[in-house]
Amino acid sequence: MSSFQKIKNFCKKPGFILALILLIFLLKELALIAVLPIFNGYDEARHYNTIQYLAEPEEKNWPKNEKKEIKNGDLVQRFNYTEEIKKTAEKIRCVGGEDKCDLYKNNLFGEGFAGKNETEINSRPWKQYNTDYPVNMASSGRSFYHKLTAEIEKLLGKESILIRFYALRVFSALLGTIVIFIFYLILKNSGFSQKHSFLLTAIISFQPRFSFYYAYINYDAFLILFFALFTLGAVLFIKNGLNWKNLSLMLLAIFLGIWTKGTAFILLAVFIFIIPFLLFYKKRFFENYSKKYWLYFLLAISPICILLIFQKYLPLAGNFNEIISSFTQYFMKNIEPGLLTLSSKTYWGEFPIKSWTSNYLLNIIWSIQFISIIGLFIFIFSKKRPEFLPEKKYVLFFILMLIALQAGIRAADWKYFAKFGELELQTPGRYFFPNLALHISLVFVGLGMILKAIKKEIHFDFVLSVGLVLMFVFFMHYLFNFIILDFYL
Question: What is this structure's pTM?
């Protein structure tokens, strides 16, 4: 066998292909980290300030100032952050003092290898601890993510803020690579072939907003990871029955997820709902009809148990008519055209550049998803599934996860609306990234079923390949026409 043939055979090995997908994702994230301006991520300055606060010594031997936060101005300068964060932001992107800082404008560039004011920043002339109180923090500093990353901040405490900040971004990229690996395991164990699992994993890895999110400092990096771990545990349970491994995965994901962010309570709700299966599936009590009826009974009361456990997180104060009235007002507010498209725009990416692609891209995506939904209905009500698609039980679980996350996010948004009379969360697309792999896979399950219905299932590989190419082009379009053009040209 020639050397070329050996290399060719090696490149066809599943381990090599998976490693290549993960390596490309990691390198892509590192490239994004390099081009995305400091503090540009959503609430990134707040998350980093939280990390700095937790990294401070227990005994704070410095004066504390009671200072009110201002409502207008730059998204860094108006909050109670460390002097180091404020001054670094000012030196990197401010033109004439704090009043002219703009978080989303071009950085200041200088001649030579070092950036403008970089030497001053690296000299660490500013306090890297909080003196202005109350300290502006995310999740009151209780999140597992912030506590863990604070240890990294301590280890690099003597380095400049640029090294410390970007090291934490690299940590996010590593977490994202682990998530992509778990997504592959979910797809492979849910019934997709190895080739289809690779293609779907590659498609997911190039989703623009997901890719950019894992180049930022944000506790959602952990939340998405724990959602993925829970989903993997549940898929393994559906596949192999209940055992200590998949039960441990689910319980660990729930515990660490809730410690990271309250959104993970949704995992606990899903776990409660599938408890009947956890109790009955492995012992095969379905063969006993009396046990089978008990299963149906437990399934029926599961939603009631969930409501009782999570009632304090739901806007259920008042009588029945008041609750219905509040929900109706919330619903009518959310079907306004601008809010109706907000989630989708921030999920796939907003494009300030006026072009045919930017204007019609979301319409194309919505059209593909609409066709896919038709295919999913056919799949669910069909008695025979195509061999190249997962079994119905996995698809139904994926749908359950999507519904649970939507319901949880909407309930939190509704609660705020019921209390203050206005929308605060507004359900931006980033809240739904924990189910990205399930969403993408369901889209292609629906398309695959459409192909089966028109007897063109032989083209499913081609459809997945086209999906990968289009997602890559979509990512590059977003990178160059939004990030590079907006910040650097």
Answer: 0.90
